[in-house]
Design goal:
- By secondary structure, the protein is of the alpha/beta class.
- It has one domain: P-loop containing nucleotide triphosphate hydrolases (Rossmann fold, 3-Layer(aba) Sandwich).
- Helices cover 41% and strands 22% of the residues.
- It is built from 13 helices and 10 strands.
- The strands form 2 sheets. Strands 6-7-8-3-9-10 form a 6-stranded mixed sheet. A 4-stranded antiparallel sheet has the order 2-1-4-5, with no helix packed on it.
- Helix 4 runs parallel beside helix 7.
Length: 285
């Protein structure tokens, strides 16, 4: 596969040359392939949100290079078009809703792309369906009359209506109950399977990472500390704990059992795998 995002020695410094200067990212190099589900994890203040804001040109490097969809973000003219190709969903995106109806909010991006009325309507209807909202019921409603979970879906639909090549989700399930989190992540994964879009997920939820991600990057104090598949990353539980991160609950259970001298596999990420491993352990007793 080819890279959709290529980062070379990215450093980002806020308030350069002032007493408030802070290095948020320090010499990050990373390749993200097209079509993958890529997770970025790290403790608060590790630089996750700063990193993903480079992906659609909201921020540009203090030094180093970021190329997204073959566009160098240092090129001011070309990076203006990244908003069409890279959809960025911030934390609690429902707070960004502002139009009088759900239809107009979801249509905002497509209209600004200069699409004709028929294409705008088609994209709005498709995006609402993708997030599990009925266009006939929701389109004419005020977004502020929807439940919290439905507002979140409407806000995400506004990004999906752009049909981005890359979808960046910064803590998309924050504030949702467990069922709402699961439903939203299932919708996102279905969207990826159907479209081939690259998903980049920033999250504190290690279970989401274990279940959804194909590749994981771990940031700590602005530096890239680890990169690999979820099983590789979560097998380094002691290092993650030292950075203030946890591991998925099933993996944590296996590590505790091993510490007690039980012969269980450390290569466990999901509840189903943990159940199988415990059943195997019990059968040996």
């Amino acid at each position: 596969m080819s890279s959709v995002i290529k980062i070379e020695n990215l450093t980002h410094i806020y308030s350069t040359g002032t007493p408030f200067q802070v290095t948020s990212l320090d010499s990050i190099s990373l390749d993200i392939e097209k079509g993958v589900f890529f997770a970025i994890i790290g403790a608060t203040g590790s630089g996750k949100s700063t990193l993903v804001q480079h992906f659609n040109g909201l921020l540009t490097p203090t030094s180093g290079k970021v190329v997204v969809c073959d566009i160098d973000t240092a090129d001011k003219k070309r990076r203006r078009n990244l908003w069409r190709r890279v959809g960025l969903v911030f934390q609690q995106p429902e707070q960004q809703l502002f139009e009088e109806t759900v239809f107009d909010d979801v249509a905002f991006g497509p209209r600004n792309m200069g699409l004709d009325k028929g294409e705008v309507t088609a994209r709005v209807n498709e995006a609402l369906c993708l997030v599990g909202l009925d266009p006939l019921e929701a389109a004419g409603m005020s977004p502020f009359r929807l439940s919290g979970g439905m507002r979140r879906k409407a806000a995400i639909a506004g990004v999906l209506a752009l049909k981005p090549e890359v979808l960046v989700l910064d803590e998309p399930t924050s504030g949702l109950d467990p069922q709402g989190r699961r439903l939203l992540m299932d919708l996102i994964e279905e969207f990826r399977r159907n479209t081939g879009v690259t998903i980049i997920l920033v999250t504190h939820d290690m279970e989401e990472v274990a279940l959804m991600a194909e590749q994981v990057a771990v940031l700590d104090k602005g530096r890239l500390i680890m990169e690999g598949k979820p099983r590789e990353i979560f097998n380094r539980a002691d290092e993650l704990n030292a950075m203030g991160l946890g591991v998925p609950a099933p993996a944590e259970l296996m590590h505790k059992l091993r510490a007690l001298g039980k012969k269980v596999s450390a290569d466990v990420l999901t509840t189903a795998e943990a159940e199988e491993e415990i059943a195997r352990l019990l059968s040996l007793d």
